[in-house]
Write a structure and sequence with these properties.
The complex is a heterodimer of chains A (112) and B (115). With 112 residues, chain A is an all-beta fold. In chain A, strands 1-9-8-3-4 form a five-stranded mixed beta sheet, with no helix packed on it. A four-stranded antiparallel beta sheet of chain A has the order 2-7-6-5, with no helix packed on it. Chain B is an all-beta fold. Chain B is 0% helix and 52% strand. Chain B has no helices and eleven strands. In chain B, the strands form two sheets. In chain B, strands 2, 4, 5, 6, 9, 10 and 11 form a seven-stranded mixed beta sheet that branches. Chain B has a four-stranded antiparallel beta sheet with strand order 1-3-8-7, with no helix packed on it. Chain B is globular. Chain B starts with a strand and ends with a strand. Classes of the chains: A mainly beta (112), B mainly beta (115). At the A-B interface, strand 4 of A face strand 4, strand 5, strand 9 and strand 10 of B.
Amino acid sequence: DAKTTQPTSMDCAEGRAANLPCNHSTISGNEYVYWYRQIHSQGPQYIIHGLKNNETNEMASLIITEDRKSSTLILPHATLRDTAVYYCIVRYSGGGADGLTFGKGTHLIIQP
Amino acid sequence: DVKVTQSSRYLVKRTGEKVFLECVQDMDHENMFWYRQDPGLGLRLIYFSYDVKMKEKGDIPEGYSVSREKKERFSLILESASTNQTSMYLCASSPWGEGGNQPQHFGDGTRLSIL
């Protein structure tokens, strides 16, 4: 997996949008951007992924820059339950199963 | 929603015991994975399986084996538990998608302590 860079920690007020940045300047054309999060003492939770276009689901939105070198995960209305470590990774889209590798991620703290 | 269920959240075993960790998924996924997660070392792949009775070694298979007799169930076996196998164990599954573009979905993990 290509390397990603994320801030170590971020704060966000409850009810506001949380915007989590990720740099992946060496991403290849056939690699997807994935976001997972891990709440303390739980397993990682898949959030969203995308290749080129912006994506939205019931949890979040993913904005990928036109050159694909960076992306932003947006949690539109953050709640206290969104406090977690958020991991941005890039994954080859080719066939076959392979393991995930997480970096250190961003510790997002939602403040009441 | 995808459901990956691990048999135990917490488990305490003794050195030398044979330990079984069970994982069941309810989404008819082809791929299943076992990871361990340790502070400072991140997520490490132990074994994975892409079909019934098929298995592939991950990055750290030593001291472990796996079994996949049914599509929905993937078991991790510690043949002779040692204290350095104390860890959080995570099971995941994913469908076989076009180009391998499919997310993995995780269970809540089993925190295993070997005394």
